[in-house]
TrEMBL record:
It is an enzyme of class 2 (transferase). One of its GO terms (biological process) is response to other organism. Its EC number is 2.7.11.1. InterPro entries: Bulb-type_lectin_dom (IPR001480), Bulb-type_lectin_dom_sf (IPR036426), Kinase-like_dom_sf (IPR011009), Pan_app (IPR003609), Prot_kinase_dom (IPR000719), Protein_kinase_ATP_BS (IPR017441), S_locus_glycoprot_dom (IPR000858), Ser-Thr/Tyr_kinase_cat_dom (IPR001245). This is non-specific serine/threonine protein kinase. ATP binds at residue 555. Keywords: ATP-binding, Disulfide bond, Membrane, Nucleotide-binding, Receptor, Signal, Transmembrane, Transmembrane helix. Residues 527-584 form the Protein kinase domain. It comes from Triticum aestivum (Wheat).
Length: 584
């Protein structure tokens, strides 16, 4: 075990694996052993299988991770996986032993005496391919099976007669490749479920999963622990918004994917699944359930030598359940959307550095929580957080008919961490708070106020000087402030007049890279929306012209509040696309 500083580790992120030397063999036959330093390579050379060495960020058992943010401990662990063989950025597409504690010692892959594909560690079976195949009815001998890495990156265990006994495509990790089915077998009940990884440096089982429901309700995205469904894509047979048309629309608009990615949906008496193909064999792509809990379509850019995410859903990063961990607030408009609540700090800063926020935040000061004492420096108080989604697992208090009684009800229990009172309904929360998001995101709207319980000394207002101010000073300050306010109002009015008469009517560039236009700007550009050229979802489209003579099409929302959410999500999706016919 080694200990290095965090900034040194960040400089070594591109070297977080040990790549085995080259080999041209794509088959592991009976009697052969694959060890560290060996690998199978598909016949087309695009994919490789072998043991890779991934350094994980792990604190030793005797270190308090909440207090150790200046040093980082690395543990070297071995995994069996498949990765892109010709791409310089090491990218795994399948990992065998991600749900098993990885081992720092050498391991081996071979065909066992009963024809199974197994990972051996210190003489024992660490992982077995056929152990997860509950439909296996026949037994094989060591001389009748072999493992082959196909050109599609599918690892198969096959008999001499050509029967496929097991394949890695049936057991995806967090990635779905072209040619792989995502769905379920109605006869065997096999369901190909994808689970996100823990972090950028840990391929273990993460917090989120995606699967096609076997009851016909569509595709479900959910948080695993606690189990919370945060996205349901309707079945393709329904008339409401579905995943396949949404992806197809994005793919057709983006020149990087138009014609290169072809999605399809199949539903017959034996199977129901989604699949996509890539007619251009020289391109590289994969669908993933990211650690941010978004579905992403990634395309390799040869020019940039990096992966480009051309599709992400949900668009609002705060939509997934508890994406920031306990005692956090998610802000979709911030550069870093996750932040700790007032008077809380990151529990494990080094896990946050690599995208693992499951530890969330912890209190700076423990709650006083002792009945019979009520002083301003030793009791607990409540800090309001306005316009946020309320946490999961609330409890109703029917006897609390006012906000003060609701507050008293929370104070009476040492485990109560927050309360909310709205429309004569009192809700309280005990333990961790999960799923609190600001309401100004693309898909989130809420007028609720959450009252967070804090130690009195941590209340923001209590740190101010409470001495009685001098009346003369207050009067003079008031007059000065009034004069300054009037001056600012005159400046604002003068600036607006100047802008209307001489400046371009489109606004400045925001943090997302999209230029904002005011309604007045667009009304002027379209001559008060006088030339209608079409109708789209949730609105009509009008022809207009900018000051620089650029011809534009302006879509104006005609729908309700729900239509506005869909409209803003559509605009955000289009904003991710670079196209000659789209103006920033």
């Amino acid at each position: 075990m080694a200990m290095i500083s965090l900034h040194v580790l960040l400089g070594l992120l591109l070297l977080l694996h040990v790549a085995p030397p080259s080999s041209s063999d794509d088959t592991l036959a009976a009697g052969q052993v694959l060890t560290v330093g060996d690998k199978l390579v598909s016949a087309n050379g695009r994919f490789a299988l072998g043991f890779f060495n991934w350094f994980q960020v792990q604190p030793p058992s005797n270190i308090d991770i909440s207090k150790s943010n200046s040093t980082t401990f690395l543990v070297s662990n071995w995994y069996l996986g498949i990765w892109f063989n010709k791409i310089p950025v090491f990218t795994t597409v399948w990992v065998a032993n991600r749900d098993i504690d990885p081992k720092p010692n050498l391991t081996q892959l071979k065909i066992s005496s009963d024809g199974n594909l197994v990972i051996i560690h210190q003489g024992g079976v660490l992982w077995s391919a056929l152990a997860v195949n509950k439909n296996r009815t026949q037994t094989c001998s060591i001389n009748t099976t072999s493992a082959i890495l196909m050109d599609s990156a599918n690892l198969i265990l096959t008999s001499l007669s050509g029967q496929v006994l097991w394949e890695s495509f049936d057991y995806p990790t967090d990635v779905v490749l072209p040619g792989a089915k995502f769905g379920w077998n109605k006869l065997t009940r096999l369901n190909r479920r994808a689970i996100s990884r823990k972090s950028t440096v840990d391929p273990g089982l993460g917090s989120y999963s995606i699967e096609l429901e076997t009851n016909g309700k569509g595709i479900v995205l959910k948080r695993r622990k606690p189990s919370v469904v945060y996205r349901i894509y309707a079945p393709e047979s329904s008339e409401i918004l579905k995943l396949l048309p949404r992806i197809q629309k994005i793919l057709q608009l983006d020149p990087r994917t138009n014609g290169l990615i072809v999605p399809n949906y199949t539903n017959n008496p034996e199977e129901e699944y989604y699949i996509y193909t890539s007619p251009d064999e020289s391109s590289s792509s994969f669908l993933s359930l990211d650690i941010s809990s978004q579905i992403k379509l990634n395309i390799w850019s040869q020019a940039n030598q990096s992966w480009q995410a051309v599709f992400a859903d949900p668009v609002d990063v705060c939509t997934p359940a508890a994406t920031c961990g306990p005692f956090t607030v998610c802000d979709a408009n911030a550069l870093s959307p996750c932040d700790c609540m007032e008077s809380f700090s990151k529990k494990s800063p080094w896990h946050w550095e690599f995208g693992d926020r499951t530890h969330g935040c912890i209190r700076n000061t423990p709650l006083y929580c002792t009945s019979g004492k009520n002083t301003t420096t030793s009791t607990d108080m409540f800090h309001p957080i306005a316009k946020v989604t309320l946490p999961y697992n609330s409890q109703s208090v029917n006897l609390a008919t006012t906000r003060s009684k609701c507050e008293e009800s929370c104070l009476s229990s040492c485990s109560c961490t927050a309360y909310s009172y709205s429309n004569s309904n009192c809700s309280v929360w005990h333990g961790k708070l999960l799923g609190v998001c600001l309401s100004d995101g693309l898909e989130i709207s809420s007028e609720d106020v959450l009252y967070l319980r804090l130690a009195a000394k941590d209340m923001p207002s209590l740190g101010k000087d409470k001495r009685k101010p001098n009346v003369g000073v207050v009067t003079a300050a008031s007059i000065s402030c009034f004069g300054l306010l009037m001056l600012l109002m005159l400046l604002v009015i003068w600036r607006k007049k100047l802008r209307w008469s001489s400046s371009p009517f489109y606004g400045s560039q925001g943090p997302s890279g999209i230029i904002a236009f005011t309604y007045t700007d667009l009304a002027r550009a379209t001559k008060n929306f006088s030339e209608k050229i079409g109708t789209g979802g949730f609105g009509s489209v009008y022809k207009g012209m900018l000051n620089d003579s650029t011809t534009i099409a302006v879509k104006r929302l005609d729908g309700t509040r729900q239509g506005e959410k869909q409209f803003r999500a559509e605009v955000s999706s289009i904003g991710l696309i670079q196209h000659i016919n789209l103006v920033n």
